[in-house]
Amino acid sequence: xxxxxxxxxxxxIRKCDYLLIFATESIKTKIMKKLLTILMLxxxxxxxxxxxxxxxxxxxxxxxxxxxxxxxxIGGLSRGSIGELKGWGGDFLVAKFxxxxxxxxxxxxxxxxxxxxxxxxxxxxxxxTITSKKGSWIYTWSKEGKKISVRSRN
Length: 154
What we know:
Blueprint: H1 3-19, H2 25-50, E1 54-59, E2 63-68, E3 73-78, H3 79-82, E4 84-88, E5 92-97, E6 100-105, E7 110-115, H4 116-119, E8 121-126, E9 129-134, E10 137-142, E11 147-152
Helix pairs in contact: 1-2
């Protein structure tokens, strides 16, 4: 639960406790139901806002700008800080920075760091997976950096 929702909830409960001292049980029940409804709506909106889908990444001279499915800019990442963009999936993107691949969420938070020598060369990023090749093997990775499958290139 986001920190600001916890603060709002604590504030509401303290105020309600004070105001409800003189209220009847039926009024207390109605007020608490309304508070719970408001809290659930806030949680739903927060969860929806956190899971933005990436539809496009614009590359400029110094920045990668991330856009959602509505065409709104949801983040910007400096080329100097993330390195070379290798691709993006539904709600994450992958960049190579020196000898590491970093997996970022749509807002630019690092989800996982993987060593290039372990992963090999990334050949594709799609949906919720990353595909790489290393020697004569093709690897499929989850966006969390976990190996899903391995198969021969032949």
